[in-house]
């Protein structure tokens, strides 16, 4: 799968791809939804996460440096208005979270501020989008949207 590139280009091709991945598959086979749905959640559905107006509910700092993303795991609750403040302490990196439609350059001394509404629970892999050197491939992590318990 070329899931990594889905949101790299904001063109119609990308839209079609994500519809196929998220919409069509889910509707076609309700019986398989549990298994398939979980899998799609695990890899992060290609759906673009909307922004929001007003102040965030939670602000998370992410530091990118050779060769890690710190913290490696950022957990936010479903429904939260999230602000990520991503900084680099050395060279240019880029924050890439395809499942949430996030792809921003991160310059040293120029933090990227990214806002998104945490909608669909799941694990969304994040990585560095700028080939920054030998350990580039180790610069990975995940954003986890935890499900709000529906008790009724
Ligand atoms: Cu990199």
CATH class of the largest domain: Mainly Beta
Task: Tell me the major beta sheet.
Answer: 5 strands, mixed
Number of structural units classed as domains: 2
How far is the N terminus from the C terminus? 37 Å
| Helical residue percent band | 10-25%
Oligomeric state = single chain
If helices are DSSP runs of H or I spanning 4 or more residues, what is the number of helices?
2
Average pLDDT for all residues: 79
Which residues form runs of ≥5 with pLDDT under 50? 1-29, 34-46
In this entry the ligands are: copper (II) ion
Predict the CATH topology of the largest domain: Immunoglobulin-like
The tally of strands reads 9
Broad shape: globular
Rg over alpha carbons: 16 Å
What percent strand?
35-45%
């Amino acid at each position: 799968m070329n899931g990594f590139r889905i949101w790299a280009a904001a063109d119609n091709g990308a839209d079609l791809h994500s519809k196929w991945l998220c919409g069509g598959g889910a509707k076609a086979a309700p019986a398989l939804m549990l298994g398939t749905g979980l899998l799609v959640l695990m890899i992060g559905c290609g759906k673009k996460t909307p922004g929001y107006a007003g102040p965030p509910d939670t602000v998370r700092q992410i530091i990118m440096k050779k060769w890690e993303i710190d913290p490696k795991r950022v957990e936010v609750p479903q429904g939260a208005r999230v602000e990520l403040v991503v900084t680099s302490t050395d060279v240019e990196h880029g924050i890439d979270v395809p499942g949430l439609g996030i792809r921003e350059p991160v310059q040293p001394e120029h933090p990227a501020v990214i806002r998104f509404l945490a909608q669909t629970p799941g694990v969304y892999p994040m990585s560095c989008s700028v080939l920054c050197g030998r350990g580039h491939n180790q610069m990975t992590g995940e954003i986890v949207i935890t499900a709000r318990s529906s008790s009724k």
